[in-house]
Design brief:
Blueprint (H helix, E strand, L loop, with lengths): L9 E4 L11 E4 L25 E4 L14 H12 L4 H21 L9 H14 L5 E6 L1 H12 L4 E7 L8 H22 L1 H6 L3 H14 L2 E6 L6 E6 L1 H12 L4 H5 L1 H9 L7 H7 L7 H11 L6 H7 L14 H8 L18 E6 L7 H9 L4 E6 L12 H12 L10 H7 L8
Helix pairs in contact: 1-2, 2-14, 3-4, 5-13, 7-8, 7-10, 12-14
Amino acid sequence: KNDKTIRLPLIIMKSDSATPQPDPVLRTLGGPGASSLKLVGGRKSSPWLKNRDMIIFEQRGTKYAQPALECPEVNEAKISGFKQRLGEAEINRRELAAVKVCRDRLLKAGIDLSAYNSAESAADIEDLRRALKLEKINLYGVSYSARLMLNVIRDYPKGVRSVVIESTLPPQVNYDEVGVDGINRTLNLLFSRCRADAGCAKNFPNLENDFYAAIRRANAEPVLLDAKDAKTKETTRIQLNGNDLITWAIDYLLSSDSQLIVSAPLQIHRVSNRDFAPLAGYANDKISPSFYSLGMRYSVWCREEFPFENPKKIAAQASLYPNLKGYVVQSLPAICGVWNAAPAKSIENKPVKSDIPTMIIAGEYDAYTPPEWGKMTARDLQNGYFFELPWLAHGAGFSAPSCVRDSIASFFDNPAIEPQIACVERLRSFFKFAGKDK
């Protein structure tokens, strides 16, 4: 008998109503490995609180859970490598060595790493529902937690009234086999949209060629930038290569925020012309610890993704697109060889089918969970409703206009009625690419 106990914090945000509906909304974040408690700051952007409470749930293994599967050894190894301006191969070697140190430490502490996975987290949500004596709950997940919510409706459908998921990672997608495809799709979308926009085409006529030329230059001779350590405030000169420029464009420009997306051509133009000021935030983050609880991240990924993936297809991603040659989305496939997690059951790699009303949201510029994956998920859900939001990307709901959040609130109020987001077409014509600096 396993008598180990874990402790999972939660926050219940009370409804504005004196007589709230009996079925709260449960939210948790993605990653896997992100702490969910930061969602407590989102009261103003949660209009469903008018009629029902919201439960913010910290998944097992994340920052404020006990135990938290943190890997400071990995953060230290990577940050030290960046500060020493080591090459990618050496940084990766040190990262893998640190992963093994972290794994061995957690195992020595008596932590069962196989217990940190989506099936167990889904069971935690069901246990919480029962502990709070709730007949039904509504679920809201984003990115990895969208996948987690699919686990819940598969395994515990009787306790779920409705679901909202955004930036969906379906279980049947083998992410590492197709991750670079999403990066390529989003960059191509940006460049084609710029060419089709009269102002953008005039201001940045060679945007695509200039961007990939900058990547080639940075791979041949890395860009040197001063980065500030958030803790010590010390400044260190680090180097950024062409792969860093790709990640910067995807993570920092083509993020969920429309205002950043409209400025993407301008910022790419600046960097392509050797004005590296737009890279400052990215450089600072290179020497900052990961905001993921890395042990939890590895345990989920190496159990539920890696065992079902084809190593040859993963390797092929690095040479599939000439302009992105050598680029990989993440180092997790290599890490999983060290983490040595037992594979999940085959059901964790199969589509989820359900008749629970589910609203599925995607951002058109999402490079990490492309809109097509949301459409794919909707096809298996009898009452699944898909919406693609223009001028938004991964985690679109965090920066979506109030009309989108109001539509989500209306869906939670009446999930039996097909949801509508009336402002989608208006959003498409509302934003325009920014012009050149004056």
